């Protein structure tokens, strides 16, 4: 029993909570001092009975609204959440991210105020009570002490009777700190934890991610299923016509080979998508929303880009996947122009209509023959990704210009 | 079997599938492909001008899907109307049940063996019906449960004799006539007669439509004591 009480008052957790409270007191100090200065400066405190405690309390009352206002700064939750987590042993989840919503900021401000207030009280008690108690304990030994500490005057007549009070004052910070610490630990999760809105947003994010994965899985199942049945039918037909129509058999084998290869490429791509999803992407994936920057960069690189958007504001409402893919296509196209044709005028048309996005990027063919873009991540990769979105993609010369064209249906994409 | 070859139209938006089916079907001496279509609307058009005996109809196609194309063909092309075989990649495609409801005569999986495909075409061309595919049963059950049961069909099913109801129940489980004969201890000819009576009394064209009637009336799936 006694040991438990000692642990409660002096254990590691109690000591850390005391540090946390003193920290709160330290945070209060500048506000408090400023308020005191104002009180003395305006002469208000002179009219008040010259009780130091009264003016201290008055300064506190004046300082608290400013503490609360400061607490509304989003970054306060980062600092206070971190401190509470390390020092205060809170009873539930505490966030140390900037408070973004108004509700979260109000809660963080309430916490900041309570932390400063409780901290101020505990710090004050810790600073004032033990020395006072010591004076009372020493009083029987030296009556002169009462001359130095005027407040001890009443105790001089019967100093020994005040000894218990002196002991109590020395120990007073312990229960006060323990009680305040336990209280803060209990309210920390309420004021610094995720708000219901935070939890909802988190759950929604998770649900959205799951739905997107399910959609990707279903699309994959669909397209690979179709590819495999096409392969099966072609193989069956080829088997039946082996003797009679070798030309058909040769065509069927080529079709089987291509279909199988495309299906595997698509699997590869989608697996990549699913893997990319697992950790949060470090940088936001660029989409057509970033088109202006891309065009500006390309112009800066020397290609004179002529941009046509139809309708002008259409790209904003595009499904996310389509918008991202379109950006990558345009990026790839610009890159190819610069690599193969050099600094030539490029014309880019983006059209939105009939439930699909049409991209046409063209440039005059320069003296050198345009070559295939190098590596598997070039045009081929683009074609594969467009196919995943059920779109079509072509690249090639037409009427003396090199055209890169894509059509992506908008339906069924997040 | 008639002396002239069975004329087939193939509707599928994937050219590879179309070409493959073409080669498989056309290689048979008694079958000939007279036309192809890449969309549902094209399919309706081809059927109108070519008057084939059998249509192989993909379910998912642009502009008009296989379900609507089937319904339109059966409504608009008569004397005789062609037999429609729904062709699908996935047995679990919920559209397949809709296509059967729309009047399709049977159902063909793209992964079926070539022999089974041509066998199915011959079967429906003859006027016989294909067995109701097992995988569709669960789909039919859920779909039928979501709807209110068709009261008219319900009365018709109620008018079947107990023996006929038993035969209907066995048809819905996908059994062929010979298997029904084994289960019931009836002779194959008697079973045939019972099946014919069930179809007549329900006012449906074939086994497939009888199974759909059984689901839509609530005869199958509701677990009513006297019914199933």
Automatic annotation (TrEMBL), chain A:
Q: Which residues form the Signal transduction histidine kinase subgroup 3 dimerisation and phosphoacceptor domain?
A: 212-277
The organism's place on the tree of life at top rank: Bacteria
Q: What is its EC number?
A: 2.7.13.3
Q: Report the InterPro entries cross-referenced here.
A: HATPase_C_sf (IPR036890), Sensor_HK_TwoCompSys (IPR050482), Sig_transdc_His_kin_sub3_dim/P (IPR011712)
Q: Which GO terms describe its molecular function?
A: ATP binding; phosphorelay sensor kinase activity; protein dimerization activity
User: Which PANTHER family does the UniProt record give?
Assistant: NITRATE/NITRITE SENSOR PROTEIN NARX-RELATED, NITRATE_NITRITE SENSOR PROTEIN NARQ
UniProt keywords, alphabetically? ATP-binding, Kinase, Membrane, Nucleotide-binding, Phosphoprotein, Transferase, Transmembrane, Transmembrane helix, Two-component regulatory system
Provide the reaction this enzyme catalyses.
ATP + protein L-histidine = ADP + protein N-phospho-L-histidine
> What residue ranges are annotated as transmembrane?
21-44, 56-76, 114-141, 161-185
Q: Does the keyword Glycosyltransferase apply?
A: no
Write down the Pfam families for this protein, in alphabetical order: HisKA_3
- What is the protein's given name? histidine kinase
Which source organism does the UniProt entry give? Embleya hyalina
Query: What is one term from the GO cellular component aspect held by the record?
Result: membrane
UniProtKB/TrEMBL annotation, chain B:
Q: Which PROSITE patterns does the UniProt record give?
A: HTH_LUXR_1, HTH_LUXR_2, RESPONSE_REGULATORY
Residue ranges occupied by any Response regulatory domain in the UniProt entry:
7-125
Q: Which UniProt keywords apply?
A: DNA-binding, Phosphoprotein, Transcription, Transcription regulation
Query: Sorted alphabetically, which SMART domains does this protein's record hold?
Result: HTH_LUXR (SM00421), REC (SM00448)
The protein's organism comes out as: Embleya hyalina
- On whether Oxidoreductase is a keyword of this UniProt record, the answer is no
**GO molecular function annotation:** DNA binding
Q: Which GO terms describe its biological process?
A: phosphorelay signal transduction system; regulation of DNA-templated transcription
Q: In which domain of life is the source organism classified?
A: Bacteria
Renumbered to this chain, the signal peptide range is none
| PTM sites of type 4-aspartylphosphate | 58
Where does the record place the HTH luxR-type domain? 153-218
Q: Which PANTHER family match?
A: TRANSCRIPTIONAL REGULATORY PROTEIN NARL-RELATED, TWO-COMPONENT RESPONSE REGULATOR
Q: Name one Pfam family in it.
A: GerE
Q: What is this protein called?
A: DNA-binding response regulator
Q: Which InterPro entries match?
A: CheY-like_superfamily, NreC/VraR/RcsB-like_REC, Sig_transdc_resp-reg_C-effctor, Sig_transdc_resp-reg_receiver, Tscrpt_reg_LuxR_C, WalR-like
């Amino acid at each position: 029993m006694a040991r438990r009480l000692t642990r409660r008052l002096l254990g590691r957790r109690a000591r850390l909570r005391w540090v946390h409270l003193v920290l709160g007191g330290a945070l209060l100090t500048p506000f408090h001092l400023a308020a005191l200065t104002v009180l003395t400066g305006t002469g208000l405190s002179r009219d008040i009975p010259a009780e130091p405690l009264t003016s201290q309390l008055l300064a506190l009352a004046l300082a608290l609204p400013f503490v609360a206002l400061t607490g509304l700064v989003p970054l306060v939750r980062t600092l206070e959440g971190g401190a509470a987590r390390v020092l205060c042993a809170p009873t539930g989840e505490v966030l140390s991210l900037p408070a973004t919503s108004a509700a979260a900021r109000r809660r963080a401000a309430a916490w900041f105020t309570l932390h400063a207030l409780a901290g101020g009280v505990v710090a004050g008690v810790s600073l004032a009570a033990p020395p006072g108690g010591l004076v009372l304990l020493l009083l029987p030994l030296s009556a002169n002490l009462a001359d130095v500490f005027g407040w001890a005057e009443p105790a001089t007549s019967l100093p020994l009777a005040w000894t218990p009070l002196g002991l109590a004052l020395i120990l007073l910070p312990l229960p006060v700190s323990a009680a305040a610490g336990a209280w803060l630990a209990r309210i920390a999760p309420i004021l610094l934890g995720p708000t219901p809105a935070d939890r909802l947003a988190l759950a929604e994010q998770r649900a959205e991610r799951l739905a997107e994965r399910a959609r990707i899985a279903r699309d994959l199942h669909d397209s690979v299923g179709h590819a495999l049945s096409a392969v099966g039918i072609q193989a069956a037909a080829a088997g039946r016509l082996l003797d009679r129509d070798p030309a058909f058999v040769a065509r069927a084998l080529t079709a089987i080979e291509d279909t199988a290869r495309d299906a595997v490429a698509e699997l590869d791509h989608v697996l990549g998508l699913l893997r990319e999803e697992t950790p949060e992407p470090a940088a936001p994936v660029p989409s057509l929303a970033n088109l202006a920057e891309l065009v500006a960069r390309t112009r800066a690189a020397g290609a004179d880009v002529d941009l046509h958007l139809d309708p002008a504001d259409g790209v904003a409402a595009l499904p996310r996947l389509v918008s991202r893919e379109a950006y990558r296509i345009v990026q790839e196209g610009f890159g190819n122009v610069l690599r193969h044709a050099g600094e030539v005028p490029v014309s880019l048309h983006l059209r939105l209509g009939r439930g699909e996005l049409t991209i046409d990027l063209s440039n005059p063919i320069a003296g050198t023959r345009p070559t295939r873009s190098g590596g598997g991540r070039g045009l081929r990769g683009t074609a594969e990704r467009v196919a995943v979105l059920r779109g079509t993609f072509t690249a090639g010369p037409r009427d003396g210009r090199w055209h890169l064209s894509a059509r992506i249906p908008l339906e069924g994409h997040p | 079997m008639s002396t002239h070859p069975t004329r087939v139209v193939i509707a599928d938006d994937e050219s590879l599938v179309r070409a493959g089916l073409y080669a498989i079907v056309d290689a048979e001496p008694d079958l000939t492909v007279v036309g192809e279509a890449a969309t549902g609307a094209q399919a309706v058009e081809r059927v109108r001008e070519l008057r084939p005996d059998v249509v192989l109809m993909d379910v998912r196609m642009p502009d008009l899907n296989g379900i609507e194309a089937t319904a339109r063909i059966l409504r608009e092309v008569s004397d005789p109307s062609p037999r429609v075989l729904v062709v699908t990649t996935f047995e679990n495609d919920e559209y397949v049940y809709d296509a059967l409801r729309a009047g399709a005569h049977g159902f063909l999986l793209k992964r079926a063996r070539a022999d089974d495909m041509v066998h199915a075409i011959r079967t429906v061309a003859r006027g016989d019906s294909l067995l109701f595919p097992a995988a569709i049963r669960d789909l039919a059950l859920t779909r039928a449960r979501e709807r209110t049961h068709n009261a008219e069909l319900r009365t018709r099913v109620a008018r079947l004799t107990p023996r006929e109801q038993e035969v209907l129940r066995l048809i819905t489980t996908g059994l062929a006539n010979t298997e029904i004969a084994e289960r019931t201890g009836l002779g194959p000819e008697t079973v045939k007669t019972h099946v014919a009576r069930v179809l007549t009394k329900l006012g449906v064209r074939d086994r497939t439509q009888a199974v759909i009637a059984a689901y839509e009336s609530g005869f199958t799936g509701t677990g009513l004591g006297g019914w199933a």
